[in-house]
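Structure tokens
________________
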Amino acid sequence: MKRTSARLADGREILYYDTGDAAARAVPDTRPLDASAVAGSSEVRRDPLLGDAVVIASHRQARTYHPPADQCPLCPSTDGRASEVPAADYEVAVFENRFPSLAGDTGRCEVICFTPDHRTSFAELDEERAALVLAAWTDRTAELGAHDGVRQVYCFENRGAEIGVTLAHPHGQIYAFPFVTPRTTRMLATTAAHRARTGRNLFDEVLAGEREDGSRIVLEGNHWTAFVPYAARWPYEVHLYPHRRVPDLPALDDAARAEFPRVYLELLRRFDRLFGLAEPTPYISAWHQAPTGDGRADFALHLELFTVRRTADKLKYLAGTESGMEAYMNDVRPEDAAARLREVASR
């Protein structure tokens, strides 16, 4: 992997990741951008009743919203139009978000573009490109996690207007949080309590139990297993675990890295075949990584992939019990979801 670093016109960093020696990527950004607008006005507040951190980022109301394809800010720049990516081509590009939820003392938000092709998707990438994306996620996790004040690095992709995505170009985001996120905090508390009670690791037991039961397994490789969780919250939800427990992406071994592209691309392609529709399935794909401080020893890196579509013509909207009380009600039995995901396997 080759990494090239450059700066955008307002001082933000952009990184190009290539599989080999590529053409010069560090071309100048000619746009008249205001450097003083980068930091924004983010503020982290603490909910006094729940203890959760909440980010207030009112400046994001002005961010780019559903631009036409010929005005996409994530496509490579051309002679007639300068974008967020100054180079005329790229393989994978990562840059600081122009409208960040977190910036400066409150963390950092980055955009990762998986491909220069506006019309494709992650599922349509080849294994070499998927491996390069994994390398970029790993590199950013290691670098951002080493920054003072960063407590957790979160790599994720939101796809589809139904999810709320405002840019159609295949891309994801990387957040460097100045706090441990509420969901991870709950996982850490549960695993610590299980360790104190049994002396065993809860993540290990969950994975072993799913592999032994088998009814919710979606696919298995030599180094990864994908399954629908026993108490899935979403109609179609898959968790992907490496067989060897590690806290984060940089800790994966070479064998797991080598197998990941094949397994992950197959999962995404199955999601696109779930409902027999011409348009791709909307989803959220989220890497859960250990915090940078306490809690790393018992945490297990894993990916959670889910869609808000429950049938070909119905979406799963959060009901009042779910949005208001976090009491989830799933319309699809996890065993049935797993069976359907096995049915749509690649031939």
Notes: The mean pLDDT is 95. Residues 236 and 337 are 6 Å apart (CA to CA). The chain has six helices and 15 strands. The first helix runs from residue 127 to 145.
